[in-house]
Specification:
Length: 114
C-alpha cells in the first residue's frame, strides 16, 4: 500500500504547521533527534516487508543518488497509518523532536531581540 501524494502532502503540511507553531510558542528552534530519525527509517523499511518493492532500483530507496546508502525513504504503510503516526507524535508533545531555546528572536514577532 502506498500513500496518495496529495493527502499525504496535506498531512505533512498540517504537521509542519503544528510543530512550527509549537516552536514559536516556545521561542525555540526545532530539530528531529537522531534516534527518532533512525526509528522512522525502520518504520518505513518495515512498511515494505512482504512486497516486491525493494527488488527494483528506485528513488524510493535512494538508488538515484550515486554513493548513497540504500534505505527506504518513503512510507508505504497507507495514509491512515501515516496520519496515526503523526497524531501520536503531536499527542506525545512532539516526541522525537528537540526544542532548543532561542535568545536571538523576540517570541511571536520574528524580529531580532535587542
Amino acid at each position: 500500500m502506498m500513500l496518495d501524494q496529495p493527502p499525504a502532502s496535506e498531512t505533512q503540511a498540517e504537521f509542519i504547521t503544528q510543530i512550527l507553531e509549537e516552536s514559536r510558542g516556545r521561542n525555540a528552534v526545532v530539530d528531529a533527534l537522531p534516534d527518532a530519525e533512525d526509528e522512522w527509517v525502520k518504520v518505513c523499511d518495515k512498511s515494505t516487508e512482504g512486497s516486491l518493492l525493494k527488488e527494483g532500483k528506485s528513488w524510493f530507496f535512494g538508488h538515484n543518488i550515486p554513493g548513497k546508502h540504500h534505505e527506504t525513504v518513503y512510507f508505504f504503510g497507507g495514509l491512515n497509518v501515516y496520519r496515526d503516526y503523526v497524531a501520536e507524535c503531536v499527542k506525545a508533545q512532539f516526541k522525537g523532536f528537540r526544542f532548543e531555546p532561542r535568545n536571538d528572536v523576540v517570541s511571536g514577532t520574528g524580529k531580532a531581540a535587542v
